[in-house]
Structures are given as structure tokens and as C-alpha cells.
Write a structure and sequence with these properties.
The chain is of the alpha/beta class. The chain folds into 2 domains: 75 residues, Arc Repressor Mutant, subunit A, CATH 1.10.10; 114 residues, Rossmann fold, CATH 3.40.50. It contains 9 helices and 8 strands. The strands form 2 sheets. Strands 5-4-3-6-7-8 form a 6-stranded parallel sheet. It is globular, with a radius of gyration of 20 Å. The N and C termini lie far apart (50 Å). The mean pLDDT is 92. It binds 1,4-dihydronicotinamide adenine dinucleotide. 1,4-dihydronicotinamide adenine dinucleotide binds next to helix 5, strand 4 and helix 9.
Length: 214
């Protein structure tokens, strides 16, 4: 299977399949037909079949999908079958909320260090147990703990320089919350997360459906 040839739109739908399958497993469902999965996910059965066919023949005629198997396979495709250690830069409101959110650990993402430049935050212990480290120690820390993933939630003016420092230390994947597009080498992958864009989409959906409402 060549993951590179799979359309991005399909990859973007996989986390949703993964979440639904997780919920099905939690409620004790062992197998599910594509029709039922389609009903629950509000996606056509043919879309589901087309999506999953990119990764091999998961379903069986007359049987449907084996929930746990499909869950594990999608998890493997998403790289969730291993622990993904990461560091995080910016122990402000957003950084702290993310660090303290336990569900990422359940998905295999382990935040092993949090950095900030604010002397009032450095040395503080977060609810998740991490102690905020001085950003000045970033290079030394990454030399000792060569992780490949990092998150950034700092003002956009400071983000490019910090991202470059991370990349110089071998980081290859950046979860970027700063409101700026990072220009980084091609071998570095960046996932931009902009909650305000999601809110604007919601605004569009609402106002286009209810044009008379305030
Ligand atoms: P905040 O002001 O509470 O935290 C920012 C933290 O970054 C501060 O603790 C500050 O000391 C630290 N910082 C600044 N420059 C740094 C550097 N060079 N190295 C290390 N630490 C540094 O802000 P908040 O609310 O946590 O938001 C963080 C950033 O994320 C903001 O820039 C904000 O615009 C952005 N944001 C993005 C969202 C999104 O959906 N993408 C949603 C909310 C905020």
C-alpha cells in the first residue's frame, strides 16, 4: 500500500472512521454492515467502501466490517499503533488546555515536555504533571530526547523562529496553532489548526440556512 497515493480527502476522513469504530467497540459491537456504518456516520455506503478500498479489502460480502480489525488497521494507517512522543511550545491558555487533555494520551500522543519563555510560567507544574521548561533549554532537551513531533501555541510573530529551531533539532512534524503559515523544508509536515476557521464555517452554514435570522 502506497499511502502517498491516497487522496488527502480520504486521509482526512479516517480519524472520523476511527472515532466511530472506537465508539462501536466501546458499546460492544463486533461487526457492522456498510449500510449500518453509513447510517450512523451519515456518509453513503459507497463512499465508505471507496474510502476503505484504498487500504485493502476490509469488508466481506454478507458480513460487513469487523469493527476491531478495521479500527486497528485504520489506527495503523494513521500511525496510532505506536506512541508518538511530542514536545509543546507555549504554556499559555491554549497550550495548557491541550497538555491537560487526557484523550491525546489515549490516542498514543505523549507530550513529554512543555516549553515557554515566560519566567512566571517556567518551573510551574501543570495539572497533567509536566513542569514548564525554559525555551532556552529546547536544544539541549531535544538532543537528549530526539522526538519528531512538536506543537506550537505561541503568538504568530514568534512562531517561525521557534519552528526553525525545532526543525534544526530534527523535528519533522509540527502541530501549528499559531496564526501563520510556516515556511519549512519539504521533509517537514505541518498540520495547521485554526479554530476560528472552523467557527467561520459554522457561521456560513448557519447564515446561509437562516438568512433572515440576526
Ligand atoms: P497565551 O498568551 O495565553 O499563551 C502564549 C504563550 O506563548 C505565553 O505563555 C508566552 O509566554 C509563550 N511564548 C511566546 N513566545 C514564545 C517563544 N518564542 N517561546 C516560548 N514561548 C513563547 O495565548 P493562548 O491563548 O494560549 O494562544 C496561543 C497562541 O495560539 C496565540 O498566538 C493565539 O493567537 C493562538 N490561538 C490559536 C488558536 C487556533 O485555533 N489556532 C485558538 C486560540 C489561540
Amino acid at each position: 500500500m502506497d499511502v502517498k497515493s491516497i487522496p488527502n480527502t480520504v486521509i482526512r476522513r479516517l480519524p472520523r472512521y476511527y472515532r466511530f469504530l472506537d465508539e462501536l467497540m466501546e458499546s460492544g459491537v463486533e461487526r457492522i454492515s456498510s449500510a449500518e456504518l453509513s447510517r450512523r456516520m451519515n456518509v453513503t455506503a459507497s463512499q465508505i467502501r471507496q474510502d476503505l478500498n484504498h487500504f485493502g479489502a476490509f469488508g466481506q460480502q454478507g458480513y460487513g466490517y469487523h469493527v476491531e480489525y478495521l479500527y486497528q488497521e485504520i489506527g495503523r494507517i494513521l500511525g496510532l499503533d505506536r506512541v508518538n512522543e511530542m514536545v509543546f511550545i507555549g504554556a499559555g491558555n491554549l497550550g495548557r488546555a491541550l497538555a491537560n487533555y487526557g484523550n491525546f494520551v489515549k490516542r498514543g500522543f505523549q507530550m513529554i515536555a512543555m516549553f515557554d519563555q515566560n519566567p512566571e510560567l517556567i518551573g510551574k507544574t501543570l495539572a497533567c504533571g509536566l513542569v514548564v521548561r525554559d525555551i532556552a533549554e529546547l536544544e539541549a532537551f531535544l538532543a537528549e530526547h530526539p522526538v519528531r513531533m512538536a506543537g506550537i501555541a505561541i503568538p504568530k510573530t514568534n512562531a517561525p523562529a521557534v519552528a526553525e529551531r525545532l526543525v534544526a533539532c530534527g523535528v519533522k512534524a509540527i502541530w501549528n496553532f499559531a496564526h501563520t503559515d510556516l515556511a519549512l523544508p519539504d521533509d517537514v509536515v505541518v498540520e495547521n489548526v485554526h479554530l476560528s476557521e472552523s467557527l467561520m464555517e459554522l457561521s456560513y452554514l448557519y447564515h446561509s440556512r437562516y438568512p433572515e435570522e440576526p
